[in-house]
Write a structure and sequence with these properties.
Largest sheet: 6 strands, mixed
Helix content: 25-40%
Oligomer: single chain
Distance between the termini: 39 Å
Radius of gyration: 19 Å
Strand content: 15-25%
Bound molecules: adenosine-5'-diphosphate, magnesium ion
Structural class: alpha/beta
Number of helices: 10
């Protein structure tokens, strides 16, 4: 089966709030699935329930053939799932290179003792990790900022660094929650181009939450439309654009 992710009857309730309510969908290998829906329709909560930020109220999540329902956020990277958050998460007081290497340390196969006494195993890991981080920075056009403190760089560059941190672990599936938020339309386009370029180079699937319909229509292979925690529609961009339910509920009936 070419479905890398299978979500079945996912529910995430907060008391009486049904943030995600009986949602089922899949993602194919190397596919880009777009997710749209009004504010509060459960998009971010769906990511949180998938990645173990919250334990789902009900439902089943299968990834690469394994049941990962309710597993903690820390374990996601080992399954091959990586994500960014709706609010930018970078270490502003650290250099660009260190930010990327910290991202990679989620993958670390040495232990704390190795790190503290700097065993040969740890130094080898560190060297390899630095090389890998430099390669990625070069791929992303970020090399010239390698030694800069992240906090001193423009917001658009910080967004790219966050993206780099998410992909350094070589994920099979990357979850992006409004990566272009706060960027102007040119910057948003550039970031999206970069995301698509790296996706092709490295080969991973993406679930992209975004409000920008132009970006969504041109980059998503399929689109899932959410409303009140449920699926309103799912299909090819052209099908979504012409879906009467979507037009009425979301695109404003034009
Ligand atoms: P979206 O990302 O589509 O804008 P969210 O997933 O952030 O929507 O929110 C969906 C609904 O779930 C909202 O009504 C929100 O208030 C609620 N919600 C999200 N997280 C929590 C939480 N931790 N506790 C209570 N309610 C929450
Ligand atoms: Mg959200």
């Amino acid at each position: 089966m070419d479905h890398i992710l299978e979500v079945e009857h996912l529910k995430m309730y907060f008391g009486g709030v049904k943030a995600v309510d009986d949602l089922s969908f899949y993602v194919k290998q190397n596919e880009l699935l777009g997710v749209i829906g009004p504010n509060g329709s459960g998009k971010t909560t769906m990511f949180n329930a998938l990645t173990g930020v919250y334990k789902p109220t009900d439902g089943k999540i299968t990834f690469n053939g394994a049941d990962i329902t309710g597993q903690p956020l820390d374990s996601m990277v080992h399954h091959g799932i990586s994500r960014t958050f709706q609010n930018l998460r970078v270490f502003k007081a650290m250099t660009v290179l260190d930010n990327i290497m910290i991202g990679d340390s989620k993958n670390i196969k040495t232990n704390l003792l190795d790190a503290v006494i700097r065993t040969p195993k740890f130094r080898k890991y560190e060297r390899e990790s630095r090389e890998k981080a430099r390669e990625l920075l070069s791929l992303l056009g970020l090399s010239k900022w390698e030694k800069e403190y992240v906090g001193s760089l423009p917001y658009g560059i910080q967004k790219r660094i966050e993206f780099a941190r998410a992909v350094i672990v070589d994920p099979d599936l990357l979850l992006l929650d409004e990566p272009a938020a706060g960027l102007n339309s040119k910057e948003a386009e550039n970031l999206m181009e970069l995301i698509l370029y790296v996706k092709e180079k490295m080969g991973f699937a993406v679930i992209l939450i975004d409000h920008n319909m132009k970006i969504m229509m041109s980059s998503a292979e399929r689109i899932l439309v959410m409303e009140s925690g449920r699926e309103l529609a799912v299909g090819l961009p052209v099908e979504i654009q012409n879906d009467p339910n979507v037009i009425n509920a979301y695109l404003g009936g034009e």
